[in-house]
Amino acid sequence: MMDVCWSCLFIGGIAVYFLTQLLRFIFADADLTLLWADKVGSTPESKLRGKVVWITGASSGIGEELAYQLATLGARLVLSARRENELERVKRSCLERSSLKDEDILVLPLDLMDRASHQEKTEIALKHFNDIDVLINNGGRSQRSLCMDTDVDVYQALMELNYLGTVSLTKQVLPHMTHRGTGIIATVSSVVGFVGAPLATGYAASKHAVQGFFDSLRTELTDYPNITISTICPGPVISSIVHNAFTEVLDKPVPTAGDQMHKMSTERCVRLILVGLANHVKEMWIAQQPFLLFCYMWQYTPTWAWYFTNILGKKRVQNFKAGLDADSAYFSKPKVKTT
Q1: What is the pLDDT of residue 339?
Q2: pTM (2 decimals)?
Q3: pLDDT recorded at residue 338
Q4: Residues facing 230 on adjacent strands
Q5: Alpha-carbon gap, residue 284 to 7, rounded angstroms
Q6: Beta carbons within 8 Å of 279's beta carbon, 6+ residues apart
Q7: Based on the number of CB atoms within 10 Å of its own CB, is 210 exposed (0-12), middle (13-18) or buried (19 or more)?
């Protein structure tokens, strides 16, 4: 009788454990490794305070929010993007939100596609702060267009910006970190860095390239255990990336970005990124459901992932052709646009 009771308790305990994990997953907004680090790991406040952090794409979206949260933590910042006036605006806001002084934030305009300038820009950052502890490759653009309609020039621009520009800047900063033997290179990729998505063939290709580069680079740096290569894969996040996306031809703006309220908040996404950096997480999946489920499906059950991706992909293309926002179409019943 006693053995039966213990067996029932053991089985019940297992059932409760798996039910708890299922509920955790249903309400999760990041991969379980990252959420575990958020719960019991080191805090960004303890690990990033005083560090010199270089952020590209710092004039809006995730990059702007990274600047604000890092400034609040007491990190010293190098802010880079093409629009110097927007970087100055972000700097002023950082100073208002923190105890940082003017010299703790360097505004360093940078064009990722102008690779010839990257060495000089790196030297300016090092001259100002002497060190670069963290490089966050956040700059880049997305895409909203069908492959059949898209000029090859758009694909070239996406690869030049998202992939080659990121690689170029990384190669300038990496020797400094290997000389010191420590540092973090974090790159904002995307969930489409390892899955496929309609309307983003060029964007997905550039992010797949980024994933392959940094996964391979990580294996080359095994002699430098204190250098972390971290790849960040957000799902849909509220930002300006949709407004700035490439379309079927260069310099043609997106007609409408649509309602983004169904997406993850930029604040939450950035907090999770900083938790991941503080705990040296190599790859972060940051997405609300059902996008997080798709990440796990693509990783562990690709046959099922293809099945559901094809269903949702078809809906996404249909709504795009009808003039509706590509992302919000997942969450609302489509209505044909009227003029």
Answers
A1: 37
A2: 0.90
A3: 40
A4: 186
A5: 38
A6: 37, 41, 42, 47
A7: buried
Would you call 79 exposed, middle or buried from its count of C-beta atoms within 10 A (0-12, 13-18, 19+)?
buried
Identify whether the C-beta of residue 285 lies closer than 8 Å to the C-beta of residue 292. Answer: yes
List, as own/partner pairs, every contact residues 174-180 make where C-beta atoms lie below 8 angstroms and the sequence separation is at least 24, other chains included.
176/122, 176/126, 176/131, 176/132, 177/132, 177/224, 177/227, 178/221, 178/224, 178/227, 180/131
Can you read off the two tokens belonging to residue 124? 């300016």
* Catalytic-role residue among 155, 203, 296, 307: 203
Q: What is the DSSP string of 156-171?
A: HHHIIIIIIIHHHHHH
User: What's the distance, Cα to Cα, between the start and end of the chain in Å?
Assistant: 75
Cα Rg, the chain, nearest whole Å? 21
- Asked if residue 290 has a cis previous peptide bond (ω within 30° of 0), the answer is yes
Q: Give the pLDDT of residue 7.
A: 74
Q: Which residues contact 83 (CB under 8 A, 6 or more apart)?
A: 59, 109
Residues 6+ apart with CB under 8 A from 277: 44, 47, 48, 134, 184, 186, 228, 230
Establish whether 224 is a catalytic residue: no
Residues of the chain with pLDDT under 50: 334-339
Q: CB–CB of 31/52 below 8 Å? A: no
Q: Indicate the angle between helix axes 201-220 and 166-180, nearest 10 degrees.
A: 20
- Provide the token pair at 178: 């290997």
- Which of left, alpha, beta for 137 (phi over 0: left; psi -120 to 50: alpha)? beta
Which amino acid would we find at residue 233? C
CA 88 to the chain's CA centroid: 23
Question: What gap in Å lies between CA 66 and CA 96, rounded to an integer?
Answer: 15
Q: Cα–Cα–Cα angle for 165, 167, 172, nearest 5°?
A: 100
